[in-house]
Every structure is written in structure tokens, then in C-alpha cells.
Design brief:
The chain has 322 residues and is of the alpha/beta class. The chain has twelve helices and twelve strands. Strands 6-7-8-3-9-10-12-11 form an eight-stranded mixed sheet, with helices on both faces. Strand 9 and strand 10 form a beta hairpin. Helix 4 packs across helix 5, helix 4 runs parallel beside helix 7 and helix 7 packs parallel to helix 8. It is globular and about 65 Å long.
Length: 322
């Protein structure tokens, strides 16, 4: 049995707006293996969440996937009819949203919503589905479960709601779990608990995880490999160890320099100069070149492609030129 679960090739997603066409995901390629955690990091607005929605074909209007392939176990998801995708979502590929208050229906109890996952995707009867839902909520560490069975989402804390979303995502034992910034709105203590929960759940299975975050520190703790996104493209994709020991792309280097460090005393952090470029009107050539300290003439003329480097690949003329 092949370890390769997901093979994304040249994926492109555009939004057709009155002002023009915005390319949120620009010809992205990567692979995901069983029992692997792939981190996708980058600034807010770089296209991380659109990439996540593209993988399960839930891009909101007026967005549209315009190019590429999403091969799940060798089958292109972009060629499947919507009826088959509805069956696949939740059963084979699940997603944890970053906003549990939006993802959950306030009119139904939490256990009703978890049980619905089993009834829809596993065709269980109501009684068995509720039993499985109760077991799954216990598995993700919902406290005082006996008193919570009739509770509604507004009666749970943010951390507990995120555990509920994890329970729903894992209900049908999917092969791939996509977590879209699941700890962003949580305080540091609860964030650590959720990350530890994900690690423990993944250890007990052969699932693969795509973990989307803007926090490189969180990615370092959880991920085997890390893809760094900038302005809709992956600029570096390497093992977590090699990326943190020797970041190659100037953007990755800038992100790491901007991280607070307890062991290094500085008066000020080192921010990356400038701001993220427009995805509707990106600069010609390398999209990072207006902010790059190593910029060359070539950078403003040609967009670099990913080239193989130690522990993975990087898209930068510093390496493509030898």
C-alpha cells in the first residue's frame, strides 16, 4: 500500500471580482503521506485558508479552481461530481474550522451535531450515533460530559468548542485532517492543550494532517514538514528540522527573525519591511522582491520556480542561479 495520500499538482484558484481577477492560490504543488503532518505557514492574506478550502472544493463564490489536479489516492478530486464530493468530505477528508462559533449551529445541542456526522456519513441509527458521539466527545477530553449532553454551543468555552470540532472532524475516521488555524482565537494555555490533543490523536492512527497557521512556533512543535506561503505561492517546502536550522528563502529568514525569543535579549523585534503585495496586482517576477534584502535585477523580471535544496525545495533565484 502506497504511503502517498494526497498529490496536489499546479493548483490554481482565482476570485473574479468587479475590480479584477485575484489569484489566491497560484500553481501550488505538494504531496502528503500517511502519518505525516504538513504545516502551511505565512502572513494573513497569503492564501492559506483558500488553499484549504480548495482541497475539499469548498471555495466560496466568486472563487473558482481554474487549474491543476488534487489527486487523492490517485483519483483527481476535481473531476468528481459534487454528489461524490459530499460523500468524501467528512468521511475521507475532514476539516477543522478556525471559528467554532460559526461552524456550529446554535439551535442544536453539541451532541446532536456530533451524532449527525455519524448518521450522515456512516448511516447509523439515531441511538448508535448518539452513543458514538458521546464516546468521541469523551475521547477529545470534554469535561463533565454527563452534564454536557444537553448543552448548546454558547454554553461551552472556546477551547471546549474547538474540541467539539475535532470530535466532529474525526467522527468517521478520515484519512486526511485539515486544521485551518484551529488555535488562533485561544489563549496560550488552551492552545497548548489543543495541540497536545491533536498530537495524541494522530499517534493513535495512520491519519495525515495539514496544519495551517501563521505561527511558526506552533508549526515547529507539531509538523514534520513545513510549506511557507507568500502571496499565493509556496516559496519554501522543507522538513521542519532543516527549515528552522537553516532557512533558505529570504522570506522564511525574515519570519524567523521576527519571532520573539526568550534566550535572546533584544530591545526590538526585526520585522520584514513593507507589506504583503496585492494578489490582484502582484509585482512582476518574484512577488517578494520589493521586500527582499537580497534582491537582484533578475528578481524583478522572472518568477523563480521551486528547485531542490537540502531537506526539500525553495523558490528563489539565489539558489536557481547556483
Amino acid at each position: 500500500m502506497s504511503d502517498l495520500l494526497l498529490d496536489v499538482r499546479e493548483l490554481e484558484t482565482k476570485f473574479y471580482l468587479r475590480e479584477g481577477t485575484l489569484t489566491a492560490v497560484d500553481r501550488i504543488s505538494f504531496q502528503l503521506n500517511r502519518q505525516e503532518t504538513l504545516g502551511i505557514v505565512g502572513e494573513s492574506g497569503c492564501g492559506k485558508s483558500v488553499l484549504a478550502k480548495s482541497l475539499i472544493r469548498l471555495v466560496p463564490q466568486p472563487g473558482k479552481i481554474t487549474h491543476g489536479q488534487i489527486l487523492y489516492k490517485g483519483t483527481d478530486l476535481l473531476k468528481k461530481p459534487e454528489s461524490e464530493m459530499q460523500t468524501l468530505r467528512g468521511r475521507r477528508i475532514s476539516m477543522i474550522s478556525q471559528e467554532p462559533t460559526v461552524a456550529l449551529n446554535p439551535s442544536y445541542t453539541v451532541i446532536e451535531q456530533v451524532a449527525e456526522c455519524f448518521m450522515v456519513h456512516s448511516e447509523m441509527g439515531r441511538k448508535e450515533a448518539y452513543q458514538q458521539a458521546e464516546s468521541m466527545l469523551a475521547r477529545v477530553g470534554i469535561s463533565n460530559l454527563g452534564q454536557r449532553l444537553k448543552s448548546y454551543p454558547h454554553e461551552f468555552s472556546g477551547g471546549m468548542l474547538q474540541r467539539v470540532l475535532i470530535a466532529m472532524a474525526l467522527a468517521c475516521d478520515p484519512d486526511i485532517l485539515i486544521a485551518d488555524e484551529p488555535t488562533t482565537a485561544l489563549d496560550v494555555t488552551i492552545q497548548a492543550q489543543i495541540l497536545d490533543l491533536l498530537r495524541q490523536l494522530l499517534k493513535q492512527s495512520t491519519k495525515a494532517l495539514i496544519f495551517i497557521t501563521h505561527d511558526l512556533g506552533v508549526a515547529a512543535v507539531l509538523c514534520d514538514r513545513i510549506a511557507v506561503m507568500y502571496a499565493g505561492s509556496i516559496v519554501e517546502l522543507r522538513t521542519s528540522k532543516s527549515l528552522f536550522e537553516r532557512p533558505l528563502h529570504p522570506y522564511t529568514q525574515g519570519l524567523l527573525r521576527a519571532l520573539p525569543r526568550r534566550k535572546v535579549r533584544r530591545k526590538l523585534l526585526e520585522p520584514i519591511p513593507g507589506s504583503l503585495c496585492s494578489l490582484m496586482y502582484p509585482p512582476r517576477g518574484c512577488r517578494f522582491h520589493p521586500r527582499c534584502e537580497h534582491v537582484m535585477d533578475l528578481c524583478s523580471r522572472e518568477c523563480p520556480s521551486l528547485c531542490t535544496e537540502e531537506g526539500g525545495s525553495v523558490a528563489c533565484h539565489l539558489y536557481s542561479q547556483g
